[in-house]
Amino acid sequence: MRDIKFSELYKTPLKNGLNRPTKDRSSGYKMVNMGEIFAYDRIHDVDMELVLVSENEKHYFLEEGDLLFARQSLVFSGAGKCSIFMGESTPTTFEGHIIRVRIDENLADPLYYFYYFNSTNGRCSIETIVEQVSAVGIRGSDLSNLMVQYPPLETQKEIANILRTLDDKIELNRRMNKTLEEIAQTLFKHWFIDFEFPNAEGKPYKSSGGEMVDSELGLVPKGWRVGKLEELGRIVTGKTPSTIIDSYYGSDIQFITIPDMHNSTYVTKTQKMLSKAGADSQKAQYIPKESLCVSCIATLGLVSLTSELSQTNQQINSIIPYRPDNCYFTYVSARNLSQFIKGSGSRGSVFSNLNKGIFSKIQIVMPKNELVERYCKLVKKMFELIYTNLNENEQTEKQKTLLLIAIIGR
After folding, report:
1. Domain 225-366 belongs to what architecture?
2. In this structure, are residues 392 and 183 in contact, taking their beta carbons and an 8 Å threshold?
């Protein structure tokens, strides 16, 4: 296998995207921003900001298979991050902090080079051109001059198809999980917000004339009351073991921080792990499986369930349900409180902070327990499948990483 200068594979010269001020981002065509680059490896069918594109700017529209590189990043690891545009139902452009590379498919497979630049070998190549001046970034001219692996085209396609199959499997599970959680959310809203849970005759309670009574949070069904979050479970504010004791960190106990909670119903893996000794140095911080984690400092209102015995840092308040079987009700309740939680943090000098005292006293409507139990029984299988899919995706990601090393190299 020989190496080739990356620019020799271009169909058209690389291009930086359009510059549009925030005030002009409200209508028109979809625009891939840096947020999408860092959130998605494969960009397809996602919500984006809209911008106007003139007739003279339509050469900025993306085509399926275009590679998109982050020109700048706040951190070294983000500079030159590569995503691939997999197509949208409507014309889509891209912003000025992104470099577009359009590969000649008669010479190379764009998907292969997407995987190449996301392999350890490809990332190491990108890092040779990262500059750290006022910001961390790469230049298009340096990207064009990179030497890249160039196996035969048929080999590229075979490799890309294998890896794409794994990514398709991961994406299918993610979409399934999104749908399952939406179903659980919809049922929760119907029963506990719209008050249309089945009455004794199996009819929707409120619209069938069910009796409503006044409460501190407005009208609620008779027999319901207003309570506080702390009534759902024991509240634990996380804590970080001493970082100067190396033996406190290892591979025994998940140590959950806010980045582990993004876009995940369950936390199935964490960036940091504690040793048994580290976790035991603060035994009061243990939280069992299917406890609820809520981010309460800096990024407020993220909600996830634990997948195993864990601890968290001080930016997270956890609820250990008094009734473990009702954890799904607690989870969806917190998700529905997310916007309120974001607005409840007191503004400090740097971060928003929702302390344990305020968090514990947040008021919620408390339905009759038998109705909560009924809801949890209905959604239990959905959450179990979500958990299974997340674990399956984690294993598939490991397979993909091993294949990338085996096929493309370290």
Report:
1. Alpha-Beta Complex (3.90)
2. no
